[in-house]
Amino acid sequence: MTVPLNLEMIKQAREHFRGVIHPTPLDRSATFSLLTGTDLYFKLENLQKTGSFKIRGAYNKIMSLGEEERRRGVIAASAGNHAQGVAYAASRAGIKSVVVMPEGAPISKVMATRGYGAEVILFGSGYDEAYERAREIREQTGATLVHAFDDPLVAAGQGTVGLELLDELPDLDAVVVPVGGGGLLAGIAVAVKSVHPRVRVIGVQSAGAPAVYLSYKGGQRQELAAAATIADGISVRRPGEFVLEMIHRYVDDVVLVDDEEIARAILMLLERSKIVVEGAGAAGLAALLHGRLSLTGLKVAVVLSGGNIDVNILSMIIERGLVKSGRRLRLRTVVTDQPGSLQRLLALLAAAGVNVISVHHDRIKPQVPLKQAEVELFLETRDPAHVEAVLSTLGREGYTVERV
Fold first, then answer.
1. In terms of Cα–Cα distance, which of 12, 85, 96, 46 is closest to 314?
2. pLDDT in tens, 333-361
3. What sign does the dihedral 32-34-35-36 (CA atoms) show?
4. Which DSSP letter does residue 23 get?
5. What order of strands is seen across the sheet that includes strand 402-403?
6. Which bin fits 117, alpha (ψ -120 to 50), beta or left (φ > 0)?
7. What is the Cα–Cα distance from 78 to 148, expressed in whole angstroms?
8. Catalytically annotated residues
9. CA separation for the pair 194, 280 (Å, rounded)
């Protein structure tokens, strides 16, 4: 059987966008090497134009179109990153682009896609419903469908990430790749294995949307009834048909991580390395941090596939992460409703080395007895031991404390 994607196609894709799409940096992390027991490098696709690797495949596909296809324009479906890649590439080619995005797509990605020149249609609750609508529009308009992952030319563009990795790190032992529909994983796997078959290629998928994982482990393509994950870039219910064939042929393993693990990796990258990634971009590191992979002592590259995270999601991840790590504490207690009571409570907290972020004092809440007031405090603490010390101090001083 003829292989629909090969090394020569990936090399041609690199020539297609040479001088337009820049090779991204490969950065060794001493911090995360120590934490994971590997010699760890980050492939920083979050620094790519439009904020993710997706522009590689979209650009390669669009620049391969003939004259008549360009005249009819292009249509795509995307949760956000592919949308921006298609919009940018189409604008550069001077052709019309329409992108169908889920109604719940992050507003930052919707605005960015429009900013790159695409007409955006919001439809459906997820990528798969948006894709079906895009197919309907293609039938009506004759526009060329630029699939987000299940297209050899798109996957060839994504595979150029693999070529860059081998150029930058010839003695690479393993590459860890986030996977949603499978285009990036398939492209990188074909590129890497065609040059150095000894290099391990491993996909990482969200447990909330494990379509490729189940299809890979089960030996045949499977479709999910639903997909739910903070990693919207890899929230796909049905993997690509051709890319799944490539994954079965070239990929060594696919593993899962959950949303809490992804969120922790996002926060750690931000705090330890000053790197901003979205949920999909953090999946590979999450797998290493939480022991989903056994790569101890090996030279490993993790693809940080994108950085287009919605600031509201990022804010929630930061706050939740700080609470879980014992660096934020929200508590509720009751004080007597008389002058000096609140001051006494705050003095105890100051003596315990706590910084007060906010105070809400309510003396008319129906559930609170007369002549008493409820106080809810949001506090900055150092670590879990400090939290326990603060709670013990308040208990000894006669306060009944409820953690919120």
1. 46
2. 999 999 999 999 999 999 999 999 999 99
3. positive
4. P
5. 355-362, 372-380, 328-336, 402-403
6. left
7. 7
8. 54, 305
9. 26
Q: How far is CA 331 from CA 47, 150, 315, in A?
A: 40, 50, 20
Query: What stretch of H or E contains 43?
Result: strand 39-44
Which stretches of the chain score pLDDT less than 50? 1
Which of these, 77, 243, 281, 84, lies nearest to 155 by C-alpha position?
243
Q: What is the rounded distance in angstroms from the CA atom of residue 240 to the CA atom of residue 221?
A: 8
Q: What are phi and psi of 53, to 5 degrees?
A: -65, -20
- Residue found by looking up tokens 């650009």 in the block: 59
* pLDDT at site 135: 95
Beta strands 402-403 and 328-336, pairing class: antiparallel
Residue among 300, 299, 297 at smallest CA distance from 287: 300
Q: What pLDDT is recorded for position 105?
A: 85
Q: What is d(CA 379, CA 386) in angstroms, rounded to the nearest whole number?
A: 11
Task: Tell me if 308 sits within 8 A of 108, measured CB to CB.
Answer: yes
Of 338, 322, 331, the closest CA to residue 376 belongs to: 331
The DSSP output letter for 308 is: -
pLDDT of residue 2: 53
DSSP state of 291: T
Residues in the chain: 404
SS (H, E, C) 37-65: CCEEEEEEHHHCHHHECHHHHHHHHHHCC
Using only the alpha carbons of the chain, give its radius of gyration.
25
Q: Name residue 375's beta-bridge partners.
A: 333, 361
Burial class (CB in 10 A: 0-12, 13-18, 19+), 320: middle
CA 334/CA 397 separation, integer angstroms: 12
Residue 337 CA to residue 43 CA, distance in Å, equals 58
The secondary structure of 98-152 as a DSSP string is EEEE-TTS-HHHHHHHHHTT-EEEE-SSSHHHHHHHHHHHHHHH-PEE--SSSSH
- Tell me the residue type at 397: E
How far is Cα 230 from Cα 226, in angstroms, rounded to an integer?
A: 14
